Structure formats: structure tokens, C-alpha cells
Amino acid sequence: MKSAFLVLVYLAVTRGLLRIPLMRGKSARQLLEEKGLLEEYRRKFPYSPAAKFEQSEVPMTYDLDMTYYGVIGIGTPPQFFKVLFDTGSSDLWVPSISCTTSSCDDHPKFNSSASSTFQAGTKPFYISYTSGFAEGSTGYDTVKIGDLCVEHQLFGLTETEAVFMGSVPWDGILGMAFPGMTSDGGTTVFVNLWNQGKLPQNVFSMYLSSSVEGSVLVLGGTDPSYYTGGLKWIPLHQASNFWNILIQSITINGNTVACSASCEAIVDSGTAAIIGSSKDINNINGWLGAMSEQYDYASVSCSNIDLLPDIVFNINGHSFALPPSAYVMKFGSGCRTGFAPGSWILGEVFMRQFYTAFDVGNNMVGFAQAV
Questions:
Q1: Pick from 173, 207, 241: which residue ends a domain?
Q2: In whole numbers, what is the pLDDT of the chain averaged over residues?
Q3: Domain membership of residue 65 as a residue range
Q4: Cα separation of 183 and 350, whole Å?
Q5: Among residues 207, 232, 259, which one ends one of the domains?
Q6: Is residue 128 a contact partner of residue 57, using CB atoms and an 8 Å limit?
């Protein structure tokens, strides 16, 4: 009888949720390496994952190691695009059929004349990058995400893009931060989903798997089948358009190694690593016996991973332990830690270990141990 009750509770909690499969394909780093262009790219565009949070426009930079993306449709009938669901930005944009740069050549392009529901926008579209820019026009159309449709969604149609965009595995971006971040002053896709009555809760969540398949974006709530224990909810820190929280400290074996006086961090699915101040990141890597290498990464011996300690993030009275299996990443024949210098960001390295929920209505982020 008890098991039947639990099944009913589970169905009640998960009914109405929309689960969007996320794929983990080759990263831009791998694609550039295959073309022999990685060194040239790194020389021209130094790694700066925090830049998208520091410039005055609606700026973005893209991490070469980002690999998670899902498929959406735009228009009637829908034209399909692979998009990065990015909690560190707010705009939706895809390449347009008018895109003239080579970066668009290997990506599908939106043809507005092929959609019976398209309406042209009046504002231009522009986003700055540390490594270039994307610009074009705006339009309104129906956006299809899984079984849900968002009507009259404003989005960007790029006509010129930075050259490096040709080496990313996705076609465009669907921003999941707050509307104040949009470059065109529009309403975000998720807020429109909620305003149009398409979701049971004003919440979305993410499960990021280490495998090629199995990752998922959940719209309208959380799915307990992807985590164990309860979600630990953390209020957002100060008024911001980002998903920013306060970390009280970071410890190794009970010793504070970073954020000794607390630090503000942005929870960002659009950043691969965990980013932090140079002093703190160097200290963490020092405790791990990691050796500095090019492009602000630090290497460790792959044979010693099991001997490395957990790194504990103390947030809002909760402790989140990150084991070495989560923060050490294999690259070719070597291994690197998943830490890099910059403004504090909890990226994919953290989110793979902890199922992450974003409560838009209550301005909170929740973490639970991922399965």
C-alpha cells in the first residue's frame, strides 16, 4: 500500500513536466583540434569565461568545452535548431538565411519566408563577444520546445557572426537568465511559457550527465528520478539578472581553501568549468598538487585521481562535496582540474554532480545530489 502511495505522489509531482533531452556532442575544442586551429584560436581569443558577466552591453563569451544542447523548432511549420540552454544569458537567437559569414555555413539557417507565423521585428539584434560579435535583425514567431509552443516569441536572426561560431556544435542560444539581460528588451522564452499558462510551476531544472546521452532540461518543475535526497534551496544573492548565489566557504579536509570571506558566484550552464579568483583557484589547485599549464588550466596525474580529496562548497548552511571524479576532466592522454581563474561561476563541473533547479517565481536555486 505504501509503495502505491509513493507512486501516486511521484506521478502528481512529475505530471505536467516537459523533459527536453540534451545531447553531449563534440566540443568546440575538439572540432578546432581536428581542424588544427586550436592554437591559433587561443592566441587570438584568450580564455575569459567570466567576460559575459563583466561588460557593459549584453555580452557573452563561449567556453570551448561546452557540449550540452537540445533541439527546438521555430516557425510554422517548425524549422529545427540545436541550441545551448544557457542560464548565463537571456536571448534566443539562431542564424538566418541572410547570414553571410563562413561561421554559418555548417549550421541550419532560419528562413522567415517559409514560416506562415513569422512577423518581422523593428529592432536590430546585436550581442558582443570577447572574441567577436553576432548581429542581425529580430523577429517574432512560434517556438516549439518538445510538446509546448510559445506564441509570438521575439528572437534574434544573425546575419553576421564571429568566425569561431563555426566551430561550436550547436546552432544558436536559448537564454535562461532573467529578462533584464535581453539585448532586444523582449521577454525570455521561459517567462513567456509561464505567462502563456503552459507550465505547472514557474521552475525549470537541469540534469547533466557525463555520458553522450541522458542529460535533460525539465520545464515546469523538478524530476526526483534524477536526484537523491531533497533539494537544498538557496536564495539569490542581491538583485541581479543572473542566477547568483553566495558561497560561504570552500574547504578541503576541513581547511578553508577559497572564499574565506564568502564570495558571490553565478550558476551558469553556459560555462564548462568552475571559475574563481586567481588566488583561490591557485590555492585549490595547489592543494591538489596540480601543475599550471597553458590557457589557465592545471594538470594532474590521471593515475592519482582516486587519491585526491573531496572539495566541499558550503552554501547557505549546506555542504556540497565535489569528489575528484567530478572535478577532474580527461583531455586526450592527460587530466586537468575543472577550475580556472576569473569571476566566480559554478559551471557544468558543479552541475554534473548536483541536479540544479531554478525557481523563477521565488528567486532561488536548488541543488540535490544527481543520480
A1: 207
A2: 85
A3: 17-207
A4: 28
A5: 207
A6: yes
| Residue 106 DSSP code | T
Provide the pLDDT for residue 30. Answer: 52
- Interval 210-223 mean pLDDT: 90
Give exposure, 242-260, as e/b (b: 16+ Cβ within 10 Å).
bbbbbbbbbbbeeeebbbe
Residue 359: active-site member: no
Whether 49 shows a pLDDT value over 90: the answer reads no
E strand or H helix that includes residue 269: none
- What's the pTM value of the predicted model, to 2 decimals? 0.86
Q: Pinpoint the alpha helices (H) of the chain.
A: 2-14, 28-35, 38-44, 189-195, 278-287, 324-327, 348-353
Residues 196 and 280 in one domain: no
User: pLDDT tens across 237-276, in order?
Assistant: 987 889 999 999 999 999 999 999 999 999 999 888 999 9
Catalytic residue selected from 63, 65, 86, 359:
86
Q: Does residue 142 sit in the same domain as residue 233?
A: no
66 belongs to a structural domain: yes
Q: Which of 268, 280, 296, 359 is catalytic?
A: 268
Active site residue 268: yes
Total domains in the fold of the chain: 2
